[in-house]
Specification:
- This protein is α/β, with parallel strands linked by helices.
- The protein is 38% helix and 19% strand.
- It has helices at residues 44-49, 59-64, 68-73, 77-81, 94-98, 126-136, 154-171, 192-203, 221-231, 249-257, 267-273, 312-320, 324-351, 354-364, and strands at 4-10, 13-20, 23-27, 29-32, 55-57, 87-89, 103-107, 110-114, 121-124, 140-142, 181-186, 209-212, 241-243, 262-265, 276-279, 282-285.
- An 8-stranded parallel beta sheet has the order 4-14-13-12-11-10-6-5. The protein has a 3-stranded antiparallel beta sheet with strand order 1-2-3. It has a 3-stranded antiparallel beta sheet with strand order 7-8-9.
- The longest helix is centred in the last third of the chain and has 28 residues, at 324-351.
- The protein is globular and about 60 Å long.
- It starts with a strand and ends in a 12-residue tail after the last helix.
């Protein structure tokens, strides 16, 4: 019995449910990133109210601060953070890419980092990463992998595929928390032969779900979507499919069209911290003086807490004065829009109208919307 129920398809796009120990995840599903056991500036109830069914935690950062021993002692990640829904934890593999300047060694046994907190040397192995995630008590635990930059040589991509396979072989049998699901990750960049080889190797191990890793790391958007289009259908149809690291409107709709079920990104909250709102028409820079006396909400048809009560002018004031409420309101709005998009995509798939839904959403992006927002 798998953890996934497929409810509807429309072309390659899928609507389903991932079943976890802490509840169901309707898909397509966007996962807000709670790197350090919190979605920045937001209360868990606010995250739930906007439509989120699952959040993501970062194994690397939680291992260093406060440590899995502290979190386990205090009842696990759910009790510690006050989030009672499903939680996915990554493995630290993405830090091989994002923090590669801190790498001391990468070999067949694992990875040695220099901690970004105190510079101390730390070793991550497949078994060690599995143990950290077991003690965190997440619902979905990712395998340790290597995610090379898009412009890496073919030899580097091939080596990433090889190491990811041998690490997955070791991690799949490691002890888990009760009910914890484990997802494998396929690498290979946009190279058809390497990507197919990695998918075959990872899928053959029988993980609860599978991820397409090593994309959205520097390749063109066209290359990324083309790869998803042919690679996602190679993953088992009866198990969840996860694209790691994607959160913009065009990208979400593109990978959903390719058959992906889950995705995560820091974009909505990171853009909020720069003073930008994500809208159906593009990105709105609230620091711009044009909004100083603008009485309208960020979006006329948005039901988020920011749009139902506050004006662009007020939010701009908060942002420019570095008031925390401004960051909170933009975070709420940006995540509200992202979840509204995925919920709309799910509904359209179930009704057999996803192509029309996607076309309409994309037609609004980048158009002439001077009275709506400044597209960055």
């Amino acid at each position: 019995m798998t953890c996934f129920t497929l409810e509807a398809t429309d072309g390659a796009a899928r609507a389903g449910v991932v079943h976890t120990a802490h509840g169901a995840i309707p898909t397509p599903a966007f996962m807000p990133v709670g790197t350090k056991a919190t979605v920045k500036t937001l209360h868990p109830d606010e995250v739930r109210a906007m439509g989120a069914s699952v959040i993501l935690g970062n194994t690397y950062h939680l291992h260093f601060r406060p440590g899995e021993d502290v979190i386990e002692e205090l009842g696990g990640l759910h009790a510690f953070s006050g989030w009672d829904g499903p939680i996915l934890t990554d493995s630290g593999g993405f830090q091989v890419f994002s923090l590669r300047d801190t790498l001391l060694a990468v070999d067949d046994d694992g990875v040695t980092f220099r901690s970004v907190y105190d510079g101390a040397s730390e070793r991550f192995t497949p078994e060690g990463v599995a143990e950290i995630q077991r003690r965190l008590g997440s619902d979905i635990a990712m395998c340790l992998d290597i995610c090379p930059p898009a412009d890496s040589s073919r030899a580097e991509h091939e080596e990433a595929v090889r190491k990811t396979r041998i690490w997955a072989e070791r991690q799949i049998g490691a002890p888990r928390a009760p009910g914890q699901l484990r997802f494998g990750i396929a690498q290979g960049g946009t190279d058809p032969e390497l990507r197919r080889r990695s998918i075959d190797e990872i899928v053959s191990l029988g993980f609860d779900g599978n991820a397409l890793g090593g994309l959205a790391v520097g390749e063109s958007r066209a290359e990324m979507l083309e790869t998803v289009e042919w690679a996602a259908p190679l993953l088992p149809a009866d198990r969840p499919r996860y694209f790691m690291g994607l959160g913009d409107v065009e990208g979400i709709l593109g990978v959903v069209a390719g058959g992906v079920d889950m995705f995560d990104c820091v974009l909505p909250t990171r853009m909020a911290r720069t003073g930008s709102a994500l809208t159906a028409f593009g990105r709105m820079n609230l620091r711009n003086a044009r909004y100083a006396r603008d009485p309208r909400p960020l979006e006329d048809d948005c039901g988020c807490p920011a749009c139902t009560r506050f004006s662009r002018a007020y939010i701009r004031h908060l942002v420019n004065q570095e008031e925390i409420l401004g960051l909170r309101l933009l975070s709420l709005h940006n995540l509200w829009l992202t979840h509204r998009l995925t919920a709309g995509a799910r509904d359209a798939i179930c009704r057999g109208t996803f192509a029309e839904f996607r076309a309409h959403a994309l037609s609004r992006l980048g158009g002439s919307q001077e009275d709506q927002c400044q597209v960055l």
